[in-house]
Write a structure and sequence with these properties.
The chain is of the alpha+beta class. It contains 14 helices and 13 strands. Strand 12 and strand 13 form a beta hairpin. The protein starts with a strand and ends in a 20-residue tail after the last helix.
Amino acid sequence: MGVEEEFLLVGRDGLLAHEGQEVIAEAGDGPAELVGEFARCQVEAAGPVCTTGGELLTELRAARRRLGAAASRRGLRLLAAGAPVLAERQAPPLNPAPRYTRIAEHFGGLANLAASSCGCHVHVAVPDPETATRVINHLRPWLPFLLALSANSPYCEGTDTGYASWRHQRWSNWPSAGPPPHLASAAHYDACVTELLHTGAALDPGMLYWDIRRSAHHPTVEVRICDIPQTAEETALIAVLVRALVRAALDDIAADRPPLAREHTTLRADLWHAAREGFAGRCADPLAAGAARPARDVAERALERLRPYLADTGDLALAEEVLGALGGPGGGAARQRAAFAARGRLTDVVDHLATATLDGLVLSAAPQPPPAHARPAGG
């Protein structure tokens, strides 16, 4: 498995800083590949392939520290936030690379709306495109839970949006975004991509912004639904859960068990609900025919369902530990709102995010090794 994390850069005043490429150059070489993103205020860390949650967590922490140190040397801070917290004086400038310029020209104001949204993408290896397509069908009903678990963008440009994940709402405006349909085959998947390209809803295969897709460059399924979590520990939790879901799907496929049913229109409504309430609210439970349950309960039920797979890869202790650490402070959106509630200052939210991005969650034990046999608010 592998993970890509997108971050915002801000100055000491909390406003976006447009020095992504300079920070990347300052960071130098390391295991994670550092690249620019759609807006110049963003940086992305694409980590190496990992086989255990503990290994992944080590790499995630190292990449965040590397980027944080490079940003600090330039008088900037690194934020793991799904959307900019403070009101900006102007739209953030976009990456001048030719591909991004072409996208901006073709999609107009939509490009500015979606720019500076930061997500987290999890890749899990699968044997071939046909299997990957079937795995996507099995993972579709789990998308609302993964979104609720990761929701970390309640504030956007000086406003409490009333959502836990405003990033999801902004990103869903792309015509090629959203949950994939139930796919009949790899050929059906390819036909959907071809249609999006023919209509101009996507300019290249990389603009297939489905919440789960086959990677265009790696033999993986890529889950793209999540906000960037505040902490490396939460990202590691999501990654090991996604890998366990993929392994469970592979077993179901081998046993010819059908995926859990969820109509496309209903799934879109489930995702809206998860974005609205986040981990502090309710979300659709795939193990209860999509019935809305407290997201924490869905997490516990998911853990039980995936326990054998997490135990087999040595990731069960990590998953239990991180979920336990979220029991008090709650998910990312709740922690942002708590930071604001203390004094009513959005700059406190920025300070909170900058600290959480690098310091992470406090875990009571180190992850175990694998067994022997991846609304307006005050400023």
